[in-house]
Write a structure and sequence with these properties.
The protein is an all-alpha fold. It has one domain (15-226). It is built from 12 helices and no strands. It has helices at 3-16, 24-38, 40-50, 54-62, 64-91, 100-129, 133-147, 149-159, 168-194, 209-219, 222-228, 248-251. Helix 2 (24-38) crosses helix 10, helix 4 (54-62) crosses helix 6 (100-129) and helix 9 runs antiparallel to helix 10 (209-219). The radius of gyration is 26 Å and the shape is globular.
Length: 255
C-alpha cells in the first residue's frame, strides 16, 4: 500500500468515526511501546556490566569524558531513535502528515542531553568503581525526570501545525514526569515497608506512561487535528468564466 493510499485510509477512518478523542487500542499500543522503551535503560545497564572487561574499566577510568559521550550516544540512539520511530508509526494513525524525520529528531536530541547530563556520568562513575550499574541507571531515571520536559518542548514543536492542542503536549510531559517522580517515591516507601527487592522502585514510574497515553489521545483528537488543517482552497471549486459555444448553424455562417 502506498503512502497516499495509507493517508486516504486513515483520513477515511477518522472521518467515519464518532470523532471521540478516546481510542482504547491506540492507548494500549502507546503504553506498550513506551513501556518497552522505558526498559531500554536497565537493559543498557545490563549490557554495560556484561561488556565491562578490563579494557572497559580502563576506558572509564582514564578517558571519562570519552566514556560518558559513548554511553550517552548509545543510550540516546537506542532510546531516541527506536522510541521516536515507534511513536511516529502510532501517531500517523491520526496525523498522516506528521513527518518521521521531524518527530524522531524531536525525540533523539533531548534524549541525548538527558543521557549526557544525568544518566551517563553516574553510570560511568559506577563502572569505574565496579559498582552496581543497574542501580545507577535506576537512580538516573529519576534524575532524568527533571529534564524530561525537554522532550516535551521538542515534540510539542513537532506537533505544531498538526493539532490545535500542540502546546498541551508540554504540559503532558511535565505531568507525566512529575507523576513518575512521585511514583518512584511510593515505590521506595513500599520497598522499605514490605522488604521488596531493591530494584523494584526503579520500575514504578512506568505507571505514569498511562497518563502519557491519555494525553496523547486528547492532544491528537480528531476534532483538534481537523481544526488545525488549513481550509480547503475554494478557488478550484469556483466556476470559470462562461464561454460562448457557437451552434452548428452559426459556426458555418448559416442563417
Amino acid at each position: 500500500m502506498t503512502d497516499t493510499a495509507s493517508e486516504q485510509r486513515v483520513l477515511a477512518d477518522t472521518a467515519g468515526g464518532s470523532g471521540s478523542w478516546w481510542d482504547g487500542r491506540l492507548f494500549g499500543m502507546w503504553i506498550l511501546v513506551n513501556g518497552v522503551a522505558f526498559l531500554v535503560i536497565p537493559v543498557v545497564a545490563i549490557l554495560l556490566e556484561w561488556l565491562a572487561s578490563a579494557a572497559t574499566h580502563d576506558l572509564v577510568y582514564d578517558q571519562r569524558t570519552l566514556a560518558v559521550l559513548i554511553v550517552a550516544a548509545v543510550g540516546a540512539a537506542t532510546q531516541g531513535v527506536i522510541l521516536g520511530a515507534w511513536q511516529w508509526r502510532l501517531l500517523r494513525r491520526r496525523i498522516p502528515e506528521l513527518q518521521r524525520r521531524r518527530w524522531v529528531r524531536a525525540t533523539l536530541v533531548p534524549a541525548f542531553f538527558v543521557w549526557l547530563l544525568v544518566i551517563s556520568p553516574a553510570a560511568v562513575d559506577t563502572l569505574a568503581r565496579g559498582g552496581d550499574t543497574l542501580a545507577a541507571f535506576g537512580n538516573g531515571i529519576v534524575q532524568a525526570l527533571v529534564l524530561g520536559p525537554l522532550i516535551g518542548i521538542a515534540q510539542a514543536t513537532a506537533f505544531r501545525g498538526h493539532t490545535t492542542r500542540w502546546a498541551w503536549w508540554l504540559a503532558a510531559n511535565v505531568v507525566t514526569y512529575l507523576s513518575g517522580a512521585g511514583l518512584y517515591e511510593v515505590g521506595t516507601w513500599l520497598q522499605q515497608a514490605l522488604s521488596l527487592p531493591g530494584r523494584i522502585p526503579a520500575f514504578f514510574p512506568a505507571v505514569a506512561i498511562a497518563i502519557h497515553g491519555a494525553f496523547v489521545l486528547w492532544v491528537t483528537a480528531p476534532v483538534a487535528i481537523t481544526d488545525a488543517r488549513p481550509p480547503r482552497q475554494e478557488a478550484d471549486a469556483k466556476p470559470g468564466p462562461a464561454i460562448a459555444v457557437p451552434q452548428s448553424g452559426e459556426e458555418h455562417g448559416e442563417t
